[in-house]
Amino acid sequence: MSEQIKVLIVDDIQSTLDNLQKLLSFEPDIQVVGTAANGKEGVEQAKKLAPDIVLMDVNMPIMDGIQATETLAQEVSGSPVIIMSVQGERDYLRRAMQSGAREFLIKPFSGDELIASIRRVYQLEQKKESFLAKTTAGTEKAPAAPPDGETKQRAERGQVFFFYSGKGGVGKSLVAANLAVSMANETKGKVALVDLDLQFGDIGVLLNLDHSQGITDLIENIDHMDQEFIREIMVDGPFGIKVLLAPISPELADLVTVDHVRRIFGELRKMFDYIIVDSSAHLGEINLEVLDHADRVVVVTSLSIPAIKNTKLALKIFDSLSISPDRVVLLLNKSDAHSEFNKESVEANLRFPIAGQIPNDPKLVINSINRGNPFVTTHPESEISQRIRELVAKLLPTPAPTPEPESAEKKPRKGLFARR
Ligand SMILES: Nc1ncnc2c1ncn2[C@@H]1O[C@H](COP(=O)(O)OP(=O)(O)OP(=O)(O)O)[C@@H](O)[C@H]1O
Ligand SMILES: [Mg+2]
Questions:
Q1: Domain boundary residue among 82, 114, 130?
Q2: Is residue 266, in this structure, part of any structural domain at all?
Q3: Gap from CA of 333 to ligand 1 centroid (Å)
Q4: Cα first-last separation, the chain
């Protein structure tokens, strides 16, 4: 390999620096170009050495790793950070992600993990650079299009319903897709369905949509993105819903950043009344961001021990993230699929009320999936479709637009993704 990956290591423990340096010296494609003993020194070294990767400890004197990562994100482009932290510093995970770190390694990690992480982050950075080069070469910077009249009126109005489950395969995509279609039919409102299962999203398959364009096309042109462009990239689904599809290939998922998602959702909120979001179980920075700002979080679970265990963990994390239980709607899917558990036993175990139940209907569901036709359109009178309609009704009367009394102790809600 001709090009070596230049690595800067920032850690206040000399023996750790030595060990990491030694470990990386065996890799022909990696070169440690410098070390630093605290965050401040790390930032200075990064400016001087322009490393391809910065390995950053968290707890350090003078300037900690999180602050240093933030500074690097703002001041030094092209030097992505991999945070190294010890177990038990769980709170750091979130802060590290928000500070702009690309990966997070929990100490003690193996040499293989470290090396794989360095190579992965490096390759992604290369990909991004070539992306950027392509987009800036092909287009001239145009001023953002002014919002149209309708947009002004609808500004910040759309409600976001985020579908999440701590366990895969519990039916969130199926329910989210059918719910979006049902919501459009019931309310006649403008409904968007966003597939944020960025690696393995299957909304396109569930609704039999043309999968030639999706979120990747938006991020490639993010600086020129306006509502018209978003509308063009979204694909038409049943009952007039508009669908923003996941990238066509899993490796493209990493190109989507929190900032992209923030900007896209900022526009979607202005364009649609309801935005249904499907997700993956991974609680990475993108999911955390949407979770934080969603009007309702629909947590889907099912009657299996792993699903219940992970739902419990997810609810606990929501609690620690100060997500109010009022915003959480717990949904039990395939609610009659198991004779040993029932709604009450799940509620007792989770100490959380189940707001809705969707029956198990393998025949109808498999037929619907295979044909790419949502069951709410083909079998609107089936029990499963009726339950979806009930869920629509439950989600809709979210905070009524009635004026709050002066003394109301409600914190003003920030616009979606309008944090920075
Ligand atoms: N109510 C139901 N009745 C019968 N089968 C169901 C039901 N809900 C889901 N399924 C089955 O479970 C499978 C998984 O559903 P789905 O893909 O929606 O789960 P998911 O939570 O989105 O999974 P992932 O986390 O992998 O994205 C479906 O293919 C379908 O066969
Ligand atoms: Mg899914």
A1: 130
A2: yes
A3: 9
A4: 41
